[in-house]
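Narrative of activities, Objective 1.

The group set out to show that a structural description can be obtained from nothing but a protein's sequence at a throughput compatible with the screening campaign. Below is one input-output pair from the validation batch, recorded exactly as produced.
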Amino acid sequence: MSHNSTCITASTVAATTHDIVHGWVHQPNCRGTIDIIWSGLFTIFICTYTMLCLNVPAQYEKPWDIICRRLFWMLVAISGPEFVLTYASAQWGRARDSVRAFKASGFPQWTMRHGFFADMGGFHLVPPDGPPFPVTSKHIHWLVIHNYLPFPEITSEEITDRSKQDTVAKIVSCMQTSWMLLQCLGRAAQGLAITTLELSALAIVVCSVMTSLCWLHKPSDVRTPIRLELHISIEQIRREAGDHAMEPYKQTPLDFIDDLLPSWSLNVQPFMRMPVAPFERPLPRLGNDRLPDLKGYQEIILCVATLLYASIHLIGWNFGFPTKAELILWRVCSMFLFGNTVAFWVFETSAAWYRIGRWQRFFCRIFWKSKLEDVEQARLTRESAKVPKVLPLKAEFWSIFPLACTYAAARLYLIVEAFVGLRALKTWNML
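Output recorded for this entry:
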């Protein structure tokens, strides 16, 4: 028995010694499924997390409320990154317009960072006859040029100090994003395939980069606004502004200057009779869902950017899928995604032109030049009279609603297939 024990010990030692590998061992020349999943998910998470620059929360909100709102917008950025890009481009456009307005009024020190900070609820007006409420750059500009409020003497550097951007997370995001892009380009150059998950991550990365460019000057994670003391009552300001300013307000007492419209929660949800949270009046914070009112080349750039995002999914046209049905579904959904984006821009541009009378002016310029001056004068009269806009128009809504439903179904399938397709990968996906 002692002899057998000695033999077993000796053989175990010999086997252990034999299994030891000396020196540097290279990684196997193939990828595992967990490598693909980890790389894709981590890229998507870190990219959407660091990209978001949400507006200043209400002062009574708890940390959990802020975390939930960020998680919600991260989910939006993953399921529909072009929507976040649309909101970001809207904020960029308003910040740029504010810079032009202040510069024309003799305040060149107002920068893009000031505009973003104001439109994210960074300034709260404190009137003597009511509770504090957030004001936009348009509100501040009107109050300043009418001598109700001194120009806010805050520098761009002071606003930057209030921003709590996570530098380490930004660096990690840039490194991971660069790695993902280089990996996809490198595999394409070598004739190697990428998976549908990597393609989906690439599309989100491209859209997130464009969103980050729009938010380049926007402060991040600001929790406390700057209070602007007003030494004249809101009631007197509204009375001196005219009869239209004395009408009951819906968002803030300064609705006659900027009513914070159009917005998803303030316009679209009530129109669709969707449940809407009971808003306080005046609003304690500015929402993150204000829709764009883009003009000229801004609209063209946003259109191209959203089409670029949708077209990336078409790259998977000839990818290897576990079944023929999944290949066909991917192709159909990719075409729906791209086609619906094109159709949306056609319908939305036509409706927007109708709302602002641009089609009428376009028609007069070509076929009826003698009426152009009358049409232009009628437009200026409507704008000066502050005629309320009905948004969205019924025809506009019902033309876009079917597109939104088919888009959502196609997008949902592409997300599901990005993961389900990993169950049976071709060998060239693993190299």
